[in-house]
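ok, trying the design again with the full structure, not the truncated one.
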């Protein structure tokens, strides 16, 4: 198997359009982690991601008759741009099916290469089904983003370049995983030539389809309701069939990382390169850092694939808010303090000289107040030391550093607390983000239920996030849930969340 793929990789014609990207030593990270950290800069490709390699290698091998039929692909991002540019260079008509919630920056990029865009559905599965329908109807050639040997071989040229550029031993190469095409190509080439080098796949929490497949020893499909929406470039429900054949035998480890850890790695890449990567592009580095922490490995060479830079500018606000948490340099705490003169001053004295990043106050009653506070801490357990200090001073403390409701919504909300007689129940929703989407969401809620609280903030992503409180007595709650199910948006109940209980109830 490996020899066949190595021959295909060596014969790939990706350099007709792609460039050989540098292997950049991240000096600051290397010093901090005690290892030589190198970033494979695929964000420097003409379409700002590695996807161009596989797309072009597939399309350049099409026969004249296949080229005349045109190509079609389903993608909302990097694969779409790769197919569009490859088609432009080869003189092939390209049709790209994209979800209606695709950000304008990606639509404009694909259109600039001359591709015809078809807007359909809100998810990749919606776009894929429609693309397959158009393929059957018009006879176009479908270009798969990862489950194709020629695409895998094109992506495998990344691994070939790494070995050509790096003369010494590499302890491990960290690869972001979505459908598995990139890691399959890299593993095939590297394991054939340097089997001692570890290949480590890294996935975002919520879309860890290869991790699940490795554990089950077969491909599994993750439920749509749990699929990660932050690192959208690798948000895939099921690893490809052909990539899994390679990965199950030649990938050594899998690591799953959180949104905060991804944001922290975006900041790390910026600090060392002054470039901004997309969330999926920083996933491999997040895994590398987690690997170093877990294994204690030192004085080795570690490579992380910086796989893409197609990020909306509006998302940077959200990313910057979460980066310190990802680096374990910020703690988010909910603290109960006495409601009396001087209590703020006493609380701040207890915090000492620590840098406060955020401070929100909520009146609770005549006896108590609640403070939502962000404090800079070190990555060495000082968060727990701070909590112990506050508790020793008599404060009730709730650690909200890992509380998504607190970080996404509560930190931005200002206002009073509801009378408990109103029987409030709280839900968090995610809906496709496009012009008019918020209005459509509100219209979908209708007038049957009294809304007691509402918070929405545009993060510049393909999915909007809303926090909604409803007035619903106990006997009506099953009816409300049935109503929400019929609306069709992803949602979860948050009534028991400690951030809600402390600051908003």
């Amino acid at each position: 198997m490996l020899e066949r793929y190595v021959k295909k990789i060596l014969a790939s014609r990706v350099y007709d359009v792609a460039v050989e990207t540098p292997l950049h030593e991240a000096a600051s990270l290397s010093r901090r982690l005690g290892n030589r950290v190198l970033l494979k800069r695929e964000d420097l490709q003409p379409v700002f991601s590695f996807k161009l390699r596989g797309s072009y290698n597939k399309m350049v091998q099409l026969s004249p008759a296949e080229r005349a039929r045109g190509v079609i692909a389903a993608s909302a991002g990097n694969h779409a741009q790769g197919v569009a540019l490859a088609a432009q260079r080869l003189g092939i008509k390209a049709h790209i099916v994209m979800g209606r919630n695709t950000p304008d920056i990606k639509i404009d990029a694909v259109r600039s290469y001359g591709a015809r865009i078809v807007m359909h559905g809100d998810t990749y599965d919606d776009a894929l089904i429609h693309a397959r329908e158009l393929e059957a109807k018009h006879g176009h050639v479908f270009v798969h983003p990862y489950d194709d040997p020629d695409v895998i071989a094109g992506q495998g040229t990344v691994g070939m370049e790494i070995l050509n550029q790096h003369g010494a031993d590499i302890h491990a190469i960290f690869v972001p995983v979505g459908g598995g095409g990139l890691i399959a190509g890299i593993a095939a080439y590297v394991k054939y030539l340097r089997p001692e080098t570890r290949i480590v796949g890294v996935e975002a929490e919520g879309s860890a389809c290869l991790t699940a497949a490795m554990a089950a020893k077969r491909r599994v499909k993750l439920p749509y309701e749990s699929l990660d929406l932050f690192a959208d470039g690798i948000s895939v429900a099921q690893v490809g069939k052909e990539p899994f054949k390679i990965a199950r035998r030649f990938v050594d480890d899998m690591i799953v990382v959180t949104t905060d850890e991804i944001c922290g790695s975006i900041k790390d890449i910026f600090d060392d390169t002054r470039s901004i990567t997309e969330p999926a592009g920083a996933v491999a580095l997040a895994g590398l850092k987690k690997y170093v922490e877990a294994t204690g490995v030192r004085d080795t060479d570690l490579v992380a694939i910086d796989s893409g830079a197609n990020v909306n500018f509006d998302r940077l606000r959200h990313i910057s808010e979460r980066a310190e948490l990802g680096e374990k340099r910020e703690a988010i705490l909910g603290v109960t303090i006495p409601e009396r003169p001087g209590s703020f001053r006493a609380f701040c004295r207890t915090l000492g000289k620590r840098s406060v990043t955020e401070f929100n106050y909520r009146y609770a009653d005549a006896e108590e107040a609640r403070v939502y506070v962000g404090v800079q801490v070190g990555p060495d357990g000082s968060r727990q030391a701070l909590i112990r200090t506050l508790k020793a001073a008599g404060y009730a403390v709730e650690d909200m550093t890992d509380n998504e409701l607190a970080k996404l919504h509560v930190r931005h909300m200002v206002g009073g607390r509801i009378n408990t007689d109103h029987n409030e129940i709280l839900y968090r929703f995610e809906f496709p983000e496009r012009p008019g989407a918020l209005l459509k969401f509100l219209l979908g809620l209708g007038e049957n239920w009294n809304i007691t609280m509402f918070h929405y903030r545009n993060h510049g992503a393909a999915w909007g996030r809303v926090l909604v409180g409803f007035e619903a007595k106990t006997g009506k709650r099953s009816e409300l849930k049935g109503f929400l199910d019929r609306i069709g948006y992803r949602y979860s109940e948050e009534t028991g969340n400690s951030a809600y209980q402390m600051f908003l109830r």
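Keeping the full-length input from now on. The longest strand covers residues 330-338.
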